[in-house]
Amino acid sequence: MMKKMRKSMINKKLLAVVLGLSMALVACNGGKASTKSSTTAESIVDGKATEIDSEKDGTAAAKENTEGTTVAMEEQSITGGWSMHEGHFSPKDNQEAMKAFRKATEGMTGYRYEVLSVLGSQAVSGTNYAYLCKGEVVVPDASPVYLLLYVYEDLSGNAEVLGKKDIFSGSEEGMTGGFTLNTGKTELKDNEEVNVAFKKALGGITGVSYEPIAYLGSQVVSGTNYAVLCFEKASTASSETKLSIVTVYEDLEGHAEILSTEEVEFGV
């Protein structure tokens, strides 16, 4: 009986100590479990910038993958130390890159760029961005070309064009012989015939994968050749992703195959 009484008294003392420590912690925090300072952050919704409250607690806020919000990007390595945002190349999914583009080209005259895809980024003392653009000289009847444009944004937010490289041009609409430049939408989902031929051509291919970025143009032969810009990656663990123009040939009976691949040098 005496042992049980001593044990009960010890447990009561331990409980009193725990309660005392808990009350002390609450008093130190002003009656709250934790206090976080608040600041403002920019939220991109439907292309418009608004300010929202965000908690500044040293942790990154998770980005929701919902319509109207910027989605989290899954990065893969590109040759030259660049990284690509797999599956998220559209300008609306890359608002920071588009801000840098607008700052770098603001006030530019004589040449017009239309950003079709944000291909990748490179961390330097600041950030380099690579864009697939449709570009043309601002003169009557100018012929557009597809090109890579590179922009550098420093740590202070200043941006400038580093350089550009033409990668694909074609003859005027309706001419025969060479490739006719695609002047419409470039995503394969918006070009059903090209999309079907591309998927047929990839059927059964192993050891390499192709992620289509843009349909660039077509060529009438005994059937049709389609030029598609792709990220290409071999299935080996050490291989890096590279940028390639893949030519798909579709014959008159609807059979399709990859005719050739041409690597596009990536980087400034």
Verbal overview:
It comes from Oribacterium asaccharolyticum ACB7. Keywords: Signal. This is Lipoprotein. It is built from three helices and 13 strands, in the order αββββαβββββαββββ. It is α+β, with helices and mostly antiparallel strands and 268 residues long. Among the domains are: 95 residues, Nuclear Transport Factor 2, Chain: A (Roll), CATH 3.10.450; 85 residues, Nuclear Transport Factor 2, Chain: A, CATH 3.10.450. It starts with a helix and ends with a strand.
What layout of secondary structure does this protein have?
Blueprint: H1 2-28, E1 37-45, E2 48-56, E3 75-78, E4 82-85, H2 95-105, E5 111-124, E6 126-137, E7 145-153, E8 159-168, E9 180-181, H3 192-202, E10 208-221, E11 223-234, E12 242-250, E13 256-264
Antiparallel strand pairs: 1-2, 3-4, 5-6, 6-7, 7-8, 9-10, 10-11, 11-12, 12-13
What's this, in brief?
This protein is an alpha+beta fold. It has helices spanning 2-28, 95-105, 192-202, and strands at residues 37-45, 48-56, 75-78, 82-85, 111-124, 126-137, 145-153, 159-168, 180-181, 208-221, 223-234, 242-250, 256-264. Among the domains are: 74-168, Nuclear Transport Factor 2, Chain: A (Roll); 180-264, Roll (Nuclear Transport Factor 2, Chain: A), CATH 3.10.450.
Radius of gyration: 28 Å
- The CATH architecture of the domain at 74-168: Roll
Number of β-strand runs: 13
**How would you spell out the order of helices and strands?**
HEEEEHEEEEEHEEEE
Number of helices: 3
Q: Which terms would index this structure?
A:
268 residues, alpha+beta, Nuclear Transport Factor 2, Chain: A, five-stranded antiparallel beta sheet, four-stranded antiparallel beta sheet, 3 helices, Lipoprotein, signal
